[in-house]
Amino acid sequence: MKKWMPLWVLLLFASQAFSQEIALLKYKGGGDWYGNPTSLPNLIQFCNEHIDTKIAENPATVEAGSVEIFQYPFIHMTGHGNVFFSEDDAENLRKYMLSGGFLHVDDNYGIKQYLERELKKVFPDKELVEIPASHAIFHQVYDFPNGLPKIHEHDNKRPQAFGIFDKDRLIFLFTYECDLGDGWENEEVHNDPLEVRLKALRMGANIVKYVFEN
C-alpha cells in the first residue's frame, strides 16, 4: 500500500490553492456512480447565479484512488447499488478528507448498507453521527431550521444528515432519505414542482458554501 503523497499534492493543501471546481466520484462495485447526470451542472449553475461562486460549469469525474481528487475541495458521490473501495482507495479518500477535502454522498436510494460497510475501511476509528439541525451547514445562505429537507419519498422515513468530523470540521456528509440529487436534476426528469426543486438547490448551495469556507 502506498504511504507517500506527491509533493505537488502537499503543496496544494499547504497553500489552500483549491480551484472552485466540483467533481463526481467514480467508484468500484457496480453501483451507478453516474446517476443523476444533470444534477451537478444544475447545482453549479444555481450556485454561480445565487451565491456568487465561480465554479467551472462542467464537473470533473475522479476515481477514488486517484491523486486527482486532491484538486477539488468538494467531491460528490451518488448511486443506488453496491460500493467498493480497495485499500488504496480508502487510504486515498482518508488522506483527502483529513487534508482539507470534503466528500458528500447523496443516497439515490439503496446505497446506505454498502456505503456504511466501505466507510469502515476509510475511517475505522470514526463513526457516522447524525448532524443536528443547529449545525452551520443548514444555515449558510438559506435557512433550514428543521435540518435536511425532504425531496423524494423512499421508505417513508424522515430525512437525515449524517457526518464524520475531524475535530470540529465536518469532512464527510451523507444525506439519507432525502435525495437532493433528484431535486437538482432537470425539471422534466422527475416533474418535481419548483418549490421542491428550490429546496434541494438551496440546500445544495448551503453545502457548497460551507465547503468553500471551511
Structure commentary:
The chain is an alpha/beta fold. The protein has a single domain, classed as Domain of unknown function DUF4159 (Rossmann fold), CATH 3.40.50.12140. It has helices spanning 7-15, 39-50, 87-98, 112-122, 180-184, 187-190, 194-213; strands at 22-26, 60-63, 74-79, 102-107, 129-130, 160-166, 169-176. It has a seven-stranded mixed sheet with strand order 2-1-3-4-7-6-5. The chain is globular and about 40 Å long. The chain starts with 6 loop residues before the first helix and ends with a helix. Residues 1-17 have low confidence and may be disordered.
How is the topology of this model organized?
Elements: H1 7-15, E1 22-26, H2 39-50, E2 60-63, E3 74-79, H3 87-98, E4 102-107, H4 112-122, E5 129-130, E6 160-166, E7 169-176, H5 180-184, H6 187-190, H7 194-213
Parallel strand pairs: 1-2, 1-3, 3-4, 4-7
Antiparallel strand pairs: 5-6, 6-7
Helix pairs in contact: 2-7, 3-4
InterPro entries: DUF4159
Pfam families: DUF4159
Signal peptide: 1-19
Provide a quick synopsis of the model:
This is DUF4159 domain-containing protein. Helices cover 34% and strands 18% of the residues.
User: Strands of the biggest beta sheet: in what spatial order?
Assistant: 2-1-3-4-7-6-5
Structure summary, number of beta strands: 7
Relative helix content: 25-40%
**Broad structural category:** alpha/beta
Under CATH at level 1, the class stands as: Alpha Beta
Signal peptide: 1-19
Pfam families: DUF4159 (PF13709)
Domain DUF4159: 22-212
InterPro entries: DUF4159
